[in-house]
Amino acid sequence: MLAVSWVVPGMTDIRAQLGLLAKVVVTLGILLMIAGVVWRGVTIENVERIWNSLLARPSGPMAFRFIMQPSIAAIVAIRDGLYDGRGNRSPFLWTILSNPQERGGRLREGLNATARIILLGLAMDTVYQIIVFEAFYPYEALIIALLLAFVPYLLIRGVTSRISRWYRAHAQNFANTTW
């Protein structure tokens, strides 16, 4: 039996490196965390304000981003999950949680895939904060960008991979059935 190794565009192996946009996202994330601590501090009042603000956002201006960003992340996650299913790779989130050897590479894959969406989320939340609060809260921008882009990607990619692998196994069994 011939083993075929194939490379899918956009997918990487365990030794994958971060792309330029992913490096920008990581650097910007670190800078936003540092700026949030220095500028706003870490207090119970800030945590309560962030929580209340996050709950109020879906009904405020620019609410379309709560549909747009997860939708784009879902499209990318479905694409990558189908590639995982074709390559018979383990589900994305499960691998991150249970396999320390592959965790870093798979996280880099996910970050490379969602870097544009996260940057879009950061830009949109910055505009939202300037319009609504007339101030900038770095923590909130980072939290919203990750919640709307990376979390849906984590959840949907693994589910898609499982469905794809199940479908391929059943389609192959059906094809092998003689009538």
SSE topology:
Elements: H1 20-40, H2 44-56, H3 65-86, H4 92-98, H5 100-132, H6 138-175
Helix pairs in contact: 1-5, 1-6, 3-5, 3-6, 4-5, 5-6
Quick take:
The chain is mainly α. The protein is 75% helix and 0% strand.
Describe the structure.
The protein is an all-alpha fold. The chain has one domain (20-168). The chain is 75% helix and 0% strand. It contains six helices and no strands. It has helices at 20-40, 44-56, 65-86, 92-98, 100-132, 138-175. The longest helix is centred in the last third of the chain and has 38 residues, at 138-175. It is elongated. It starts with 19 loop residues before the first helix and ends with a helix.
Determine the number of helices (DSSP H or I, runs of at least 4 residues): 6
Structural class: mainly alpha
How far do the termini sit from each other? 26 Å
* Total number of beta strands: 0
Q: Main sheet?
A: none
Q: List the uncertain runs.
A: 1-15
Please tell me the overall pLDDT: 84
| Backbone CA Rg | 20 Å
Q: What is the beta-strand fraction? A: under 5%
Kindly give the count of domains.
1
The helix-strand sequence is HHHHHH
Shape: elongated
Helix content percent band: over 70%
Which terms summarize this structure?
179 residues; disordered N terminus; mainly alpha; 75% helix
